Amino acid sequence: MAAAQQTYTGSELDALFPSPSFPPNVLAPSRYPGTSPETVATLTHVLKDNHTRYHIFFNKQGFHNHITHRALALYAMGANGSLIEQFYKKDGSLQRPPVEPPEAITEENFFEHLGDENFYTAYRSFFGKAFRERGLSATLEEYIFSKKYNFIEGRDASAQPVMLARFLGGVFHGLIHVGYGAEMGIPGMVVEGLALTSMHGYDFLPSHLFEPSGTTAVEEATTRLASLFLNTKTSTAPSQIEQPTKNHAFSILAKIKQDSKFAPKEIKKYFKNFGGLMSDHGDTIWRYAEQWTIDPSQPGEIERKMEECIWTCTVVYGIGGWNKDRGFTADFFYMHLVTSSLFLPSVLPYLSQKSQVILLRAYFAWTLGWWITFGFPDLDIPGFLSANSHLSSETKVPNPFLDIVQSAIVHPNDHMSKIQRAFAHFSAIYGARPKGYGKDTGLEGAEALDGSLFFLVAKLTDEYMDGGTFSLAGFP
Predict the structure, then answer these.
(1) Exposed, middle or buried by CB within 10 Å (0-12, 13-18, 19+), for 416?
(2) 201-247 pLDDT, tens digit each
(3) Contact (Cβ atoms closer than 8 angstroms) between residue 344 and residue 310
(4) Residues sharing a CB contact under 8 Å with residue 198, sequence separation 6 or more, in sequence order
(5) What is the DSSP letter of 21?
(6) Sign of CA dihedral 16, 412, 369, 242
(7) What are the distances in angstroms from CA 185 to CA 17, 76, 265, 322, 345?
(8) For the segment 249-301, what is each residue's pLDDT rounded down to a tens digit?
(9) How many whole angstroms separate alpha carbon 124 and alpha carbon 259?
(10) Which run of H or of E encompasses 328?
(11) Rounded to whole angstroms, how far apart are CA atoms 234 and 230?
């Protein structure tokens, strides 16, 4: 029985947690001014100290350690080192130490201990070695997007490894954690995120996702170079990205809302039970996700579909969280739709074309599942805009988003900096979208949406969270 290495030299920690690098492409979040050598030193200390001292779950119920998420969001938003250190001490008080694993994880026993938190640090060591040998792209392709690490012939469905499902499991936390690593060039975040992925449980995933695409290696490489926007400056002007009217994500939202399988009386038993919903109706949800056509042979398609995911997450959280009787409720679980979508621009460039399509479709399916399982609220776009559009015109400061960002940086809730950073970034790249973005999609009122939506929802979140916290009640 091999022992799992749990100690690190200074040079090993330096390699895992270097100073953050620039974002991988123009659609990934940019950094705010305010950083300094002291800030970077504090940040890297926090990342290294957390790595050696704490488990990825702060309790036995599998609640995630968010130390690194808050620290990196604060850094990206220009917070000073003393504030990063202050919140680290606060968040660290909730944590527990890592568990000494019974044995090391190897290729031979990789599947045996998935979902067992006692093996977190063992998986972390395994992925540390994999990352050093392969780099980010090959590691993701092998351990998240290959058939081998998702489906094994002869196993019962519930015993399948489904690493992609685990990557999106725990309300997208594997994607979020790895996303920080991809965005900021921090290998330790990737390693921790993949180990966290291995701790999540089974969820339904269709096996046909991983069947061969029929393209040759040369065709795949050529198409990937042509389709990726990692090394291409992509215009974000509205006139440059025409929105097709067929198979838009909004069209799928409209269709699934009319499905009698998801009528209130039918989904009541799945309230707050994502796993149960996907177990019983995952095939149906995936059929809807597969109606959302992604054609990577079309120029700008990956970028366009990524944007549709971002709009969808904002609509579900912001407009799904509002109704005319109670106003706006900032839902804890829908909030994670927004914060996770921020990392799509950073992760997608590292994937092959086939894996880009798989990730986008799986992410969309998971978004539909979370929308349904937390109450499937109506999306009253006309009512929402009628009640809240005045927020844009009533601002009395030159840039109201800066006030929102400043408030989020110092907010005691560790998710506020993350969600408001996301909305600020979405406003920066999509805020110029005119009315008509969602026209002819079949989603009632979508033609009236424009890029001001991101500010409106950020403002409502700011007001709701003034002295409060995200709601766990859902929308029964």
Answers:
(1) buried
(2) 999 999 999 988 655 443 444 344 433 433 333 333 333 445 544 78
(3) yes
(4) 113, 114, 115, 119, 120, 123, 163, 166
(5) -
(6) negative
(7) 9, 13, 47, 37, 14
(8) 999 999 999 999 999 999 999 999 999 999 999 999 999 999 999 999 999 99
(9) 42
(10) strand 327-328
(11) 9
Report pLDDT digits (tens) over 118-162. 999 999 999 999 999 999 999 999 999 999 999 999 999 889 999
CA dist., res. 27 & res. 342, Å (int): 10
CB atoms within 10 A of CB 183: 24
Q: How far is CA 182 from CA 25, 41, 459, in A?
A: 11, 20, 29
What does the block give as tokens for 53? Answer: 């001292």
The H-or-E segment that residue 322 falls in is strand 322-323
Q: Calculate the alpha carbon distances from 44 to 20, 179, 291, 441 in Å.
A: 9, 17, 44, 46
pLDDT at 222: 36
The C-alpha atoms of residue 411 and residue 392 are separated, in whole angstroms, by 22
Buried b (16+ CB within 10 A) or exposed e, 420-437: bbbbbbbbbbbbebeeeb
Q: Both tokens of residue 282?
A: 């995952």
For residue 411 the two structure tokens come to 């907010």
pTM (predicted TM-score): 0.93
Which two tokens mark 183?
């965005």
Locate 210 and state its tokens. Answer: 């991983």
**Strands (E) located in 125-183:** none
Q: What is the DSSP letter of 447?
A: G
Q: What is the chain's alpha carbon radius of gyration, rounded to the nearest angstrom?
A: 21
| H or E element in which residue 453 lies | helix 453-464
